[in-house]
Write a structure and sequence with these properties.
CATH superfamily of the largest domain: Phosphoenolpyruvate-binding domains
Function: Catalyzes the thermodynamically favored C-C bond cleavage of (2R,3S)-2-methylisocitrate to yield pyruvate and succinate.
CATH topology of the largest domain: TIM Barrel
Family: Belongs to the isocitrate lyase/PEP mutase superfamily. Methylisocitrate lyase family.
Strand content: 5-15%
Distance between the termini: 33 Å
Oligomer: single chain
GO molecular function: lyase activity
CATH class of the largest domain: Alpha Beta
Bound molecules: alpha-methylisocitric acid, magnesium ion
Strand order of the largest sheet: 2-3-4-5-6
Largest sheet: 5 strands, parallel
Order of helices and strands: HEHEHHEHEHEHEHEHEHHH
Helix content: 40-55%
Radius of gyration: 21 Å
Number of strands: 8
Number of helices: 12
CATH architecture of the largest domain: Alpha-Beta Barrel
Keywords: Lyase, Magnesium, Metal-binding
Structural class: alpha/beta
Protein name: Methylisocitrate lyase
């Protein structure tokens, strides 16, 4: 009731322990606090908080317009509603290395279990679009070092994301991505998010090159094929995210329902697709609030 009973420190420790097991952890993207509860109910391992979703939620494109306060604030709202660890998208860290340091401490304060910092230039772009540019390796490493030095909880997971793969075509792109990933591990990254890998073989090459946990981004309509959790587990990936998928599903369904309202003037034919009132109340633990109230107040009218 009200919020998660697991502390941020416990969530971070749990994430570290699960990662050490070598199994693949599944992190669907929560597009709001309520959907984080659903992700937990359905038995997933963690909740991903996407920058693209956070921006889209405000009606903005994902081009680095959202601020640290907005991201940390929304992250806190989502993280506190679940017992699961949450990993958040910290984009480029919101500025220079000193800003990155502040970002990490804000995300720790927000109860987040870990984040990724990417090597794109500012302003950033979606990792699956063409025309991205990345900073040089020293600048990228400085961001990671600043992040690692700033954290107060050693279990806060600092993941380095590299977008360099998509900046060059063919096998050369993969080689430079591997070099960049190694440099970021040397800078202290706990895990690597190799963005926009094209094939399973590319993920496998990356797997063979570094021995920290690796994340696979299964975002739709992008550069990667959509591999199954089993395929990714089989090649030794450690975390898979479906960052924007639940928002895409919800927005797709909303669009179709609005069409039905236009066409038919009612939604009687779509009740099966809706989350039932009873399921919503169950998810927000309505009964527990009733019990709490009844222990405090007496609503009976005295005569
Ligand atoms: C993972 C990502 O950074 C995000 O913000 O969710 C995006 C997802 C997307 O735009 O599809 C990315 O891959 O850059
Ligand atoms: Mg992002």
């Amino acid at each position: 009731m009200l919020y998660s009973k697991t502390t941020a420190e416990q969530k971070r420790l749990a994430l570290r322990e699960r990662l050490a097991s070598g199994e693949l952890l599944r992190f669907p993207g929560a597009f709001n606090p309520l959907s984080a509860r659903l992700i937990e109910r359905k038995g997933f391992d963690g909740v991903y908080i996407s920058g693209a979703v956070l921006a889209a939620d405000l009606g903005l494109p994902d081009i680095g317009l959202t601020t640290l306060s907005e991201v940390a604030g929304r992250g806190e709202q989502i993280a506190r509603m679940t017992e699961l660890p949450a990993i958040i998208d910290a984009d480029t860290g919101f500025g220079e290395p000193m800003n990155v340091a502040r970002t990490i401490q804000s995300l720790e304060n927000a109860g987040i279990a870990g984040c990724h910092i990417e090597d794109q230039i500012n302003p950033k772009r979606c990792g699956h679009l063409d025309g991205k540019a990345v900073v040089d390796v020293d600048t990228a490493a400085k961001r990671i070092r600043a992040a690692v030095d700033a954290r107060r909880d050693p279990n806060f997971l600092i993941m380095a994301r590299t977008d360099i793969r998509a900046t060059a075509d063919g096998p050369m792109g993969l080689d430079i991505a591997v070099d960049r990933a190694k440099a970021l591990v040397d800078a202290g990254a706990d895990a690597i998010f190799p963005e926009a890998m094209r094939t399973l073989e590319e993920f496998e090459t990356m797997r063979g090159a570094v021995d920290v946990p690796l994340l696979a981004n299964m975002t739709e309509f992008g550069k990667s094929e959509l591999f199954s959790a089993q395929q990714l587990a089989d090649i030794g990936m450690n975390i898979v995210i479906w960052p924007v998928s639940m928002l895409r599903i919800a927005m797709g369904a909303t669009g179709r329902a609005l069409d039905t309202l236009n066409d038919e003037g009612h939604l009687r034919g779509r009740l099966d697709e809706m989350q039932h009132r009873a399921d919503l109340y169950d998810l927000v633990d309505y009964e527990a609030y009733n019990r709490f109230d009844s222990g405090v107040f007496n609503f009976e009218v005295e005569r």
